[in-house]
Each structure stands twice: as C-alpha cells, then as structure tokens.
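For the sake of transparency, this paper describes our internal protein records without simplification. Because each token names a local backbone shape, the row as a whole describes the fold. One such record is reproduced below, unchanged from the form in which we store it:
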Amino acid sequence: MTAVARQAHIELKSAREIDLLRKSGRVAAEILMELKHATVAGMTTKDVDALAAKKMKERGVTPSFLNYRGYPAVVCTSVNEEVVHSIPSARKLKDGDLLSLDIGIFLNGYCGDTATSFVIGGKTTPAMERLMKAGRDSLEASIQAAKLGSRLGDVSHAMQKAVEDAGFHVVREYGGHGIGRAIHEEPHVPCYGTPSTGIRLVPGMALALEVMANAGTAAIDHKDDQWTVVTADGSLSVHYEKMIAITEQGTEVLTPHED
C-alpha cells in the first residue's frame, strides 16, 4: 500500500526488532488466511472489513490502515479490475469474483503487512488461474532474489520477469516498501527493475515485497474516491505481498502463509 517514494535513509533493524516484526507478521498472515477462508459469495466487502476488525480486536492488535492518510477502513478489498486500495463498501461479492485482500496491523509498535488474491467460490477460469499463478510466482521469485549482497534492482527485476514471461504486466506506479515501526519506510521497491542496480541488500533490512499484476495493460486509473486504483482497460488484476527480513543467516519470510 504505497506509491512511488524517493530514496532516503533506510532504517536497519536489530535482531530484537526483527523478532517483533516476525511476531506481527505472523499474526497478520494468520488473519489474512482466516479472512480468505471465511469470505463467501453474498458478503459485502464491508462485511469483510468488519470481520477483519473483529479478528484484529480478538488478537489485541491495532489496524494500521484505518485513518492512514484518511483511509476509512481496516482492509483493502479490491475486486476484479480493482488493483489496490479499494475501500470496503456495500458491494456484494459473487461467485467468480477475483478478490485481493490487503491487511496491515500494529503489534507491540511494529507492523505486519500482507496481501493475497483469490476467487470467490473457487469458480475460476483458466485465464484467472494463469494470472494468479503469475502473481504468486512473481512474489516467490522476488523473495528468492532478495539475498544478502544482492541489489534492489535484482529483486524488482525478478518480480517483473515472472509476470511478463507469463504474458501479463506489472503496475509501475505502486510497489513494495521498507517496513518497521511505520507502515511505509524506505526503500521503495518497484514491481519492475534492472538487475545489478539499486541499493545493496544488507543485514537488518525489512521489506514488504508487493507485486501488482494486470491481465491487460500496465496502465491504471483512479476512481473518484481517490483511493481505489483500477486497470485502465478494465482487465483483471492481482495483488500479492509478503514481508521479509535480510539477516546474516539468510532471508526470512516474516508473513508465512499458504499462498
């Protein structure tokens, strides 16, 4: 949940801080998967938001999206051609809708942030399956590329290549970000990049890697609410996100879940 940002100071995390991010990330991942399995046709996206708020309250965590720069909800519920940041509403979900859920929490002052896409009712089409697979493969490729000593361009390029090799396009105006005590920290992590360029990955970096992949054009528009991002041509879009930490021992996924 971030737009393009300028390079600035990158706050490296201590082992204690990475452990705090690990705990918040795991809770965020658990809530995301519970929402995925509980969301069915007939529910409104507002219902999904209310369920997310309930699950966060039960765990004693605070939603990080609510009131962030005026965002009025706990989760982002983007449907079909909506890419990211869709505000929950009275829109009823139908079997066959492609839903992207993005959630963020604070636990003990540290953020957990993760997203996934799935089809309501499981009634997918081959085209939907290919798009979702491209998104998942892209995120996994970027995680594999995020090795100690690699450069940020390697991570972004791996993300872009997996999507484009599958015949789709990445969104260029939005991407991932550093994460810690703030929802969005430096560096910005684009969904596209050039290998062997950008900052070098060093121990203590915590990143939220995000891929937004469109079935059609890479171009996007915004709805009148100034939050909801949609594909310019009305094609489907998916959004996947996981948090990672770069350590001396290797790269750790901080939001482990089945996607």
Notes: The chain has one domain: 15-253. The longest strand covers residues 237-247.
